[in-house]
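Narrative of accomplishments. A recurring question from our advisory board has been how the design workflow behaves on a single, concrete structure rather than in aggregate. To address it, we present the structure tokens for one chain from the evaluation set, followed by the sequence designed for it. No filtering or post-editing was applied between the two.
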């Protein structure tokens, strides 16, 4: 890998960036891992704020391209490595639905779940990006019911994002782990990339505890 092609991944174990870690393992590509100690406050230091002023992970740098925000990172990486087959290309009928579900997570689902978890009253539906919680969850369930993956038989990077997120969200009881979500989470966690990502995070946590 040349310096121009060098892929740097900024990650903190057991955070939202674990989804990007799993995606990189699914893609099977080399990357340089830059671990950010969130408990030690490294995400608020000038060095990392120069990468992401929001002080959040994940982030990736590929040559001169710096990408933050989960949805953007997933789109970028899956398109960057088309041989892995995780992104329907432009012109594929599944391209639009694929982008829809990648963006739906951050624009509708996560805000709805966070509002519900924090017991915050949402504003009027016309002012709230997700409309209302019940419709948001029902929309997701309806799509997953067509399974086994978000786009039916086609497994994509969108499933990496959703599989990782729903694993955490159902474990914390923020969304009920019933069907079709339960089966979807189980299928996702049976993939080898999940075990590899989990092992990496466990090793990082253990090294930090020493």
């Amino acid at each position: 890998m040349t310096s121009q092609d060098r892929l740097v991944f900024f990650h903190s174990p057991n955070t939202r960036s674990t989804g990007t870690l799993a995606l990189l393992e699914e893609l099977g590509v080399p990357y340089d891992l830059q671990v950010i100690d969130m408990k030690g406050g490294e995400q608020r230091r000038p060095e990392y704020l120069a990468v992401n002023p929001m002080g959040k992970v994940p982030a990736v740098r590929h040559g001169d391209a710096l990408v933050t925000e989960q949805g953007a990172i997933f789109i970028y990486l899956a398109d960057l490595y088309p041989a892995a087959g995780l992104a329907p290309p432009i012109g594929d009928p599944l391209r639009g639905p694929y982008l829809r579900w990648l963006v739906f997570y951050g624009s509708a689902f996560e805000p709805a779940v966070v509002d519900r978890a924090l017991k915050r009253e949402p504003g009027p539906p016309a002012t709230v990006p997700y409309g209302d919680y019940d419709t948001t969850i029902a929309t997701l369930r309806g799509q997953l019911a067509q399974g086994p993956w978000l786009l039916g038989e086609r497994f994509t990077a969108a499933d990496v994002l959703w599989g990782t997120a729903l694993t955490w969200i159902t474990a914390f009881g923020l969304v009920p782990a019933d069907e079709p979500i339960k089966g979807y989470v189980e299928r996702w966690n049976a993939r080898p990339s999940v075990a590899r990502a989990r092992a990496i995070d466990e090793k990082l946590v253990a090294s930090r505890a020493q």
